[in-house]
User: Which sequence fits this backbone?
């Protein structure tokens, strides 16, 4: 890698870190690209060279956060492994993300920003939805292998995400409750697995 490339990467990372700090402190609407540039120690032109808009920058932050956590436990469907064990690994990775303080803080920022702009909300939800595709792909694999009853993979995946988020996302976002303890995480996962497999396993 050349020195200019390394410098570009360093500036990009500085912009992302500055944006995380500003979004968490001030919220989406108040945070300006000027402020992000000042905090990052770069020019506003440099910020716009990397990110054409504040929305693009915010989406990149959420994507990077998701990828850094979920990539550690990416689970592809395996026809030779029990369904329950595979699903459990996927759900534990999801709960790991939902327990991350940075993710929760940025999710609060995103929700607050979305309330004031339905168009922005649709865009952010669509972008985040792309990062929940892993479970949908796994369900499609199990369905094609004949191990699940006929179902809509996207609908079933959304059901599963809803089971987790009702305990490990919305109470923390809206009521300020603490992240789930390890024991409660296990209880939530086991219950979700029981319901999902009881209803859908062939």
Assistant:
């Amino acid at each position: 890698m050349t020195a200019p490339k390394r410098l570009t990467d360093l500036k990009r990372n500085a912009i992302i870190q500055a944006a995380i700090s500003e979004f968490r402190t001030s919220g989406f609407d108040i945070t300006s690209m000027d402020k992000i540039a000042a905090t990052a120690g770069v020019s506003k032109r440099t910020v716009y060279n990397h990110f054409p808009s504040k929305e693009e920058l915010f989406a990149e932050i959420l994507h990077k956060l998701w990828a850094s956590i979920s990539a550690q436990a990416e689970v592809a469907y395996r026809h030779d492994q029990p369904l329950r064990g595979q699903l459990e690994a996927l759900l534990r990775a999801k709960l790991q993300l939902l327990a991350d303080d940075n993710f929760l803080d940025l999710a609060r920022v995103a929700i607050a920003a979305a309330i004031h702009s339905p168009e922005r909300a649709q865009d952010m939800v669509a972008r985040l939805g792309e990062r929940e595709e892993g479970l949908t792909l796994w369900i499609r694999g199990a369905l094609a292998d004949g191990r699940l009853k006929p179902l809509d993979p996207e609908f079933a995946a959304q059901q599963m995400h809803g089971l987790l988020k009702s305990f490990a996302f919305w109470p923390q976002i809206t009521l300020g409750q603490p992240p789930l303890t390890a024991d409660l995480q296990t209880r939530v996962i086991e219950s979700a697995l029981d319901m999902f497999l009881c209803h859908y396993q062939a």
